[in-house]
Amino acid sequence: MTLPRKIEPPFRIAVVGGAQASKVEYELARDLGGELARLGAVIVCGGRGGVMEAVAQGATEAGGLVIGILPGADPRSANPWVGIPFATGMGEARNTLVVQGAESVISVGGKWGTLSEIALASKIGLSVGTLGTPPAKGLGLLALESPIEAAKWALERAQAFRGR
User: What is the mean pLDDT of residues 132-136?
Assistant: First the structure.
């Protein structure tokens, strides 16, 4: 019997940020989602509004797949761009699943919830970069200049994470 050849799964990149996004943050996240999708990545996000909706919109419009890790128990609460809504019923604790489901993380704006995701990602050894204004100063995170740079960086870091 011949076993099937193992297919390498796509890289999973978490994009985290605020449920309310400024116009600039929304555009950055949407463009980032499109770039990540064109590079073949699967996006993992919180599945709701703001940055999460923007990255999902960009990825979906570019033909990509978005997994939305939702805080509530109703998968219908996902934004319309999420391809796979995962309703956890865990509230903010779902932030752990967002970062555990990824191989690198990019933050776009955000506040306390985003900071928790950055901290969790750093604790488990994921690379974290920021695009736009970081949620807090002095964290020592890599500031990425553009959605294209951020997407390429995220995939490089995901590949390194997978290969360790």
Answer: 82
Which listed CATH number (3.40.1170.60, 3.40.50.720, 3.40.50.450, 3.40.190.10) goes with 12-163?
3.40.50.450
- Is pLDDT of 113 > 90? yes
Write down the residue that tokens 């193992």 correspond to: 6
Domain ranges of the chain: 12-163
Counts of helices then strands in the chain (DSSP H, E): 5, 7
Q: Residue 152 in contact with residue 49, Cβ under 8 Å?
A: no
User: What is the spatial distance between Cα 122 and Cα 104, in angstroms, rounded to a whole number?
Assistant: 10
Specify the range with the lowest mean pLDDT, choosing from 3-7, 113-117, 129-133, 150-154. 3-7
2 vs 64: CA distance, rounded Å: 32
